[in-house]
Amino acid sequence: MNLLIFTPVLPEIAITIASMFLLIIGVFKKNEKTYTTISNLAIFSLLAVLFLIFSGSVPKGISFGGSLITDSFSLYLKTLILISSIIILVVSNIYLRNINLLKFEYIILILLSVVGMMIMVSSNDLISLYLSIELQSLPLYVLASIRNKSSKSTESGLKYFVLGALSSCILLYGLSLIYGYTGSIYYNEIASNLSEYDVGILIGVAFTLAGFAFKISAVPFHMWTPDVYEGSPTTVTAFFAVAPKIAALGLIVRILITAMPTLIEDWQSILILLSIFSMLLGAFSAIGQRNLKRLLAYSSISHMGFALMGVINGSFDGVRSLSLYMLIYLVMSLALFISIIALKNNDEHIENIEDISGLAKINPVMALIISILLFSLAGIPPLAGFFAKFYVLYAAIDAKLYYLAIFGVLSSVISAFYYLRIIKVMYFEESANSFDPISKRLKTIIYLLTAITLLFFLRPSIFINFAGTASASLFI
Length: 476
Known about the structure:
Oligomer: single chain
Strand content: under 5%
Helix content: over 70%
């Protein structure tokens, strides 16, 4: 057997081997030191894989008979997934210890889910697509309910599992229709067989996009998001908010641009509806929320509506804007979630907006950081979030979808209200809490991510060119 066929998927193989090895360690030695050892080894494994990608040691090409493809776009998305996963594992070491939830299975589940996400963004046929989605999803169902002594966590895991199973059925039915009408599972062959198509193909595309919409929590397949975000441990919520959505958006881009370019007028209409309703529902529904994680759940729904704008016109500029949006969204979301994790009152992590009242008087630095991140999420210039929204709005205008851009601006204005409400609580209300000191490790991560958000405007070309180089590989 030629071992060269495995080299393009070296990152996935390395993480799989690492997860199996760490699982064996965890099964035979269960104690707090073992958790720390497994966590450190997992972080080291992900860092090693990230170094392989950055050093150019992962060759581009097709592997496993054309089922998987490694190109600049997939490597870019894998980089984002690995960075977010590393940060989540580092933060989890502190957070899980605080809530007495040091379970080594938590780490193994994250690693296996990461493998699924990395295969998702490299999938080149319908079978690898579906199997990778299931590999990514199954660990997430368990992670949502891993705090089994909490009724909220158990409930969130059950809801996520039931709705996830339903979405998998919808997705599988759509993929089966696409295969049935085109006679192939490979994206390039599907594209070449779409010159003459039946209405059954359009039904298949609609069902497939419905399945994908669940993974990114786009309206009307968003029902699970607020409950799962609220019930899950906060580090799990942060992981849900970033890594799986990056993988799912990357998969949507690849299958639509590679396999269905001739159907752009048909899938464009579906994505426009998903984008508009996601932006508006996310903006309006967040207004009445008091729980921070539920509020951020609706915020993420609105942001997924913005992200879909980058897919709609099917052009290089659109995909580049989406790639940039995913990078900036990763930085902003992780920074805000980690800031929430860092704030404690008498060893109790905060949950509601009222819990951070008067924060500016007790910890003005953290209040300023959270304000910067909220302004960035709202799209206020010159913060990074402004550039993210500007480029996807430009992509919509470039496609002459002016009404879509208007809805985007409108939803941004509405969302600014509930972001400003949080800032008002921090600066203009009396404090009912005394906040505990923040870990130096958490401070370092928060400061670094906030610095990127704040100083992005100084050299935006670095990130734009990085996203552009990755996106160009889809149009060669």
